[in-house]
Amino acid sequence: MTKSCWQWLGACLISIALSACGTRPTPAIESYVFGTMVSISLPDQSQTRAQQLANAVNQEFFKLHQQLHAWQSDSELSRLNQAIAAGQSMQVSPLLAHMLRQTQQLSAQSEDIFNPAIGQLIALWGFHRDEFTPVKVEPEQIHRLVKTHPSMAQLHIQDLQVSSSNREVQLDFGGYAKGYALDIAANFLRTQGVRNALINIGGNIIALGQHDQRSWQVGIQHPRQSGTIATIDLPDGWAIGTSGDYQRYFNLDGQRYCHIIDPRTGYPVQTTQSVTVLIPPAESAGVMSDVASKPIFIARDESARLLAAKKMGVDYFLIVDAHGDVLMSRAMQKILHWTQPPSHIKVVDTEAL
User: Fold this and answer.
1) Which residue from 255, 88, 110, 79 is spatially nearest to 156, judged by alpha carbons?
2) How confident is the model at residue 352 (pLDDT cuts 50, 70, 90)?
3) How far is CA 45 from CA 27, 29, 59, 302, in A?
């Protein structure tokens, strides 16, 4: 890892902080992958066993990171992007083929608001780098890329052979890979007989079991202040994820430009500070904790946010808009504990949506 990565890591705020529900703190084994901090807590294991398990998990994370890196030319995903740009097909690994099919389905579910095919736009805004310095993007460049309408539906997957009808499709799994890695880690630890663990990949978290006979507790990072805005109990098998504009961003001419880009306009979203979603136990709970927050974050107003939550099947959500006001579901309100309550909170019943 470069020196700049370590400097950024030391300065960044993890979007969801961990604690142990009022009990003694649990030492976490930390690493750095997917461009963020990874933390694995294994309270019932000896130090030696915990380190062995964490090392095995991190090896899988690093392999996945190398395979899916969006701008390293030797990654499998980058090679696929090069083939698409050249109008060629490429045989991919079974794992990548599975991911492509899964992201296609999730993109369709979101009506292409979650769109991993807009890698060229992400690169144009300077987010294919380890450091985020101001980038002046010409409107004509954005308009040209948006007009090409790259989408996951334009990928053609036949067995392991992948091509695209649109050469402008460039894949970036930055809004998906962390969640997929969570599911891999949780499944691996279960196969190793681990009953209690907490895995945090840069704010996407999944819980196994309990800690000291109580649910794990996580704190949702305040998007504009130090510390948490609220805490929440995370039962066995549940996952939580936050998308925010406060880690990967730059300021230019008094405006904040974050890494979450609206594929319809080509511009970074400026209507939302953060979105937190809570996902019940499921085979892909980790994936959904990563993906489901994105369409809600990108939505432009309250009605669109609620519709996005419904489309993604999210019953538990907390949205902080550009003004710091909160819109949240009744289900989330019932389990949330405020630490820095905002001045304006609106609660909606998802059953009525």
Assistant:
1) 88
2) low
3) 11, 12, 19, 45
What percent of the chain has pLDDT above 70? 92
Residue 6 has pLDDT above 70, yes or no: no
pLDDT at 351 (0 to 100): 77
Return the DSSP state at 324: S
Phi, psi of 51 (to 5 degrees): -65, -40
- Asked whether 142 and 266 are in contact (CB, 8 A), the reply is yes
The pLDDT mean for the chain works out to: 92
Report how far residue 313's alpha carbon sits from residue 242's, in angstroms, rounded to the nearest whole number: 16
Instruction: Give CA–CA dist 331/53, Å, rounded.
Output: 35
**pLDDT at residue 18 greater than cutoff 60:** no
Mean per-residue pLDDT, 179-202: 97
Give the C-alpha separation, 353 to 342, whole Å: 24
Q: How far, in Å, CA of 248 to CA of 256, rounded?
A: 10
The more confident residue out of 157 and 350 is 157
Residue type, 348: V
Domains of the chain by range and CATH? 3-46+178-352 (3.10.520.10), 67-164 (1.10.3980.10)
CA torsion, ordered 121, 127, 128, 129, to nearest 10 deg = 160
Q: Residue 322 gets which letter from DSSP?
A: T
| Distance (Å) of CA 315 to CA 109, 110, 297, 330, 353 | 16, 15, 15, 9, 10
Contacts with 42 (C-beta within 8 Å, 6 or more apart), sequence order: 29, 49, 50, 53, 54, 189, 194, 196, 197
Query: Would you say 174 and 119 are in contact if contact means Cβ atoms under 8 Å apart?
Result: no
Amino acid found at 229: I
- Cα–chain center distance at 187: 19
